[in-house]
Task: structure prediction
Amino acid sequence: MLDKNGIAQRIAKEVKDGYYVNLGIGIPTLVANFVRDDIEVEFQSENGVLGMGPFPFEGEEDADIINAGKQTITTLPGASFFDSATSFAMIRGKHVDLTILGAMEVAENGDIANWKIPGKMVKGMGGAMDLVASAENIIVAMMHTNKRGESKLLKQCSLPLTGVGCVKKIVTNMAVLEVTAAGFKLLERAPGVSVDDIIKATEGNLIVEGDIPEMKLS
Amino acid sequence: MINKKINSVHEAVEGIKDGMTLMLGGFGLCGIPENSIAELVRLGVKNLTCISNNAGVDDFGLGLLLQGRQIKKMISSYVGENDEFERQMLSGELEVELTPQGTLAEKCRAAQAGFTAFYTPAGYGTEVAEGKEYREFNGKMHILEKAYEADFAFVKAWKGDEAGNLIFKGTARNFNPNMCGAATITVAEVEELVPAGELDPNQIHIPGIFVQRIFQGETYEKRIEQRTVRQR
Result:
């Protein structure tokens, strides 16, 4: 079973040379730590920066340079700043190559819910609905089950949706799955996790064909 | 040169009345029109509808207008980090219209650019689409979103000149350029106001035609919401 860093490490292998990548808040943010350093990748933050770098050294924070999580950041050579409409033109216009975001629930048809829990304070969807509606290459980073052990990979989402039929690939603490017309297709299993474990933890239709290899993290 | 310079923050809010709709630039606390917000608090106008990506924190940004219950309705994409906001929303005192961030930006830009409405795939199949017209283009569903109609836009830029030309800095740019000219009157506050001719026309982000009033803010606190650093 993987921890959050393990999920991020596996997703980092999907990041290819020359990609512009948008990282969501939570596990997706960790992906940047595991991207190979022999490839060129630029990270976009939807509040208006392309070419995000690491956090600044203490004393060098600039209130005018933050990411979408409102954290102080730095920029790398080749970076640019832009307004919000331009930022979403990059996203809606499919100029961003890969979007990695978290989810509370994903359904076997690719529906995703990640913004609202009825009865709890609603904080808003931010840019999530724009991202999932437009991006063609979306990877969801999530835990396979909730704290009560119930599956988060469902036949149908129970929570209010963020987008319909948009998720293509999911990396959880247990498995890598592809969303197909017939349901979740199991591609890889996490170290120490059996196919049976994954079947038990998946409520939605799970397709298992042949031998399922164990994930390689590096 | 058509001079847009006003002499004080008091003139910035001239003409604002109860019940008006305001656009306010900023992302979180980054690039917010601090001086204009402070003046709106002093003015005490009520029943405002505010279009702003976020709603500030309890004691800064739009949180200051919420404290005085000056806001009737908030149109935003994300409203966490504010206890007073949560209290007013849950008690029903405050109406909230949550809008996807890219749609919010585009509804501003549409107003600026003279588009009445536009189609976007964002939010189709979700509660955001409820009651809205939808249509299929190239095999994909889109919903019809309308441009905002606002009385005032308050934006913050880094530098500006007396002609109303603006230059933004870093991610403090965010929604500010999209709101310029998107309301009947656009008020720009800047950290440094210079005479016309001192800014290089090649470097202008927003031409002065989109701005009706410009002034230099007295002070800027520029509060950082999440101070994150790394070790040397």
